[in-house]
Design a protein that fits this description.
The complex is a heterodimer of chains A (190) and B (179).
Chain A (H helix, E strand, L loop, with lengths): L11 H8 L1 H15 L7 H14 L3 H14 L4 H10 L7 H15 L6 H9 L4 H23 L8 H14 L1 H5 L11
Helix pairs in contact in A: 1-2, 3-4, 3-6, 3-8, 4-5, 4-9, 6-7, 6-8
Chain B lengths: L11 H8 L1 H15 L7 H14 L3 H15 L3 H9 L7 H15 L6 H9 L4 H23 L8 H14 L7
């Protein structure tokens, strides 16, 4: 049971966001820019970074839903998502994305773990400054979203079909659009 | 020098915000709601939570700037120092101590927060919104701290700059740059 009175019909971060729409809006706007807005990294690549960090943080809800969104972007390739989580160095992804995942893994432990060599390696494989910036911020942001979801003890169903369906919907419609289905139209007065 | 080409005269998160305004906007809005907008927890109390988490994450820029904002709200930095070194013995309310204990758990891992931690906060008078906001402030600073350190931003050791920044943040909030 959640630590506070969250709407019971909404699992994971959705329950927390419906509880506090004032913070939900910037949280959704941020994830929309980081994972969906046009970028030289594809939405699938960026969802893989989010999934990997959520896996390292052991957040069941976030790694399942973002893994499902990643798979939806990647032609339904759930096996690739599993391989990135298990050992991305052996997954069928670009060397550039592997170098960015190394940086994301360091950020997950603490920003100061990232070294100049990690960044030089990503750059030598073609990563731009914006891609390096966004990788650091995606990893940092998921250290927030994961703690938010787990810290309130939100409901995190063990239902793969639910995540798969939801993943397709978010991949198709985006975070901000989907949030309109569970957030009130106007901020509630407290 | 930062790992990517950030504006050289903008310290800490300001340089990263200027580099990528698209992400700066929601990040500023989030901090503004969490730390500055009206709330049953005072801005000073919420800045203390942000400062404490940033200190646990060892982020110099964030703990110093938010510590300065807290000091500006609270009229001095003695309580800020004491909260960072041992909040259980600091001159803050029993409710804020219970919330800081929750924030400390979130800083390590959200799953460490127990029903007992939440019961303690509630028995000291904390509302559900206050518990929610404490969890999200702690979680958000696990983001801001990693962002500032992960890009190796410029973090000057200039106390007067932070004092000025803290005063500006305390008065105006987070929506616009203080520089």
């Amino acid at each position: 049971m959640p630590h506070i009175a969250l709407p019971e019909s909404q699992p994971g971060i959705r329950g927390a966001m419906a509880f506090r729409p004032e913070t939900a809006r910037p949280l959704n706007d941020l994830v929309e820019v980081l994972l969906r807005s046009p970028n030289s990294l594809s939405p699938g690549e960026r969802e893989l970074i989010a999934t990997y960090v959520s896996y390292l943080n052991d957040c069941h809800y976030c790694q399942s839903i973002h893994g499902a969104i990643a798979a939806a972007h990647l032609g339904g390739d759930e096996e690739l998502v599993r391989r990135v989580k298990a050992d991305f160095q052996y997954a069928a992804i670009s060397p550039k994305l592997k170098a960015l995942l190394v940086i994301a893994g360091k950020v997950q432990r603490g920003g100061k773990h990232v070294t100049a060599e990690d960044v030089a390696n990503a750059r030598s494989l073609g990563a731009t400054d914006v891609e390096i910036h966004d990788t650091v911020l995606i990893a940092a942001a998921f250290c927030m979203y994961n703690r938010y979801v787990d810290g309130l003890a939100t409901v995190q169903p063990r239902d793969e079909a639910m995540y798969r369906e939801r993943g397709k919907m978010v991949a198709r419609d985006g975070y901000v659009n989907v949030s309109k289905t569970y957030l009130p139209a106007e901020p509630v007065e407290r | 020098m930062a790992y990517i080409a950030l504006h050289e005269d903008l310290p800490g998160i300001s340089g990263a915000f200027a580099f990528r305004p698209e992400t700066a906007k929601p990040m500023r809005e989030l901090a503004h709601v969490l730390l500055h907008e009206p709330n049953s927890l005072t801005p000073g109390e919420r800045e203390l939570i942000a400062t404490y988490v940033s200190s646990q994450n060892d982020c110099y820029f964030c703990q110093t700037s938010h510590g300065a904002a807290a000091a500006s709200h609270l009229g001095g930095d003695d309580v800020v120092r004491r909260v960072k070194s041992d909040f259980e013995s600091a001159p803050v309310s029993a409710k804020l101590k219970a919330l800081l204990a929750i924030a400390a758990k979130v800083q390590r891992d959200g799953k460490l927060v127990t029903t007992q931690d939440v019961e303690r906060a509630r028995s000291e008078g904390a509302s559900d919104v206050e518990i929610h906001d404490t969890v999200l402030i702690a979680a958000a600073f696990c983001m801001y701290n990693r962002y500032v350190d992960g890009l190796d931003t410029w973090q000057p050791r200039d106390q007067s700059m932070y004092a000025q920044m803290g005063k500006h943040l305390a008065e105006h909030g987070y929506l616009k740059s203080s520089r």
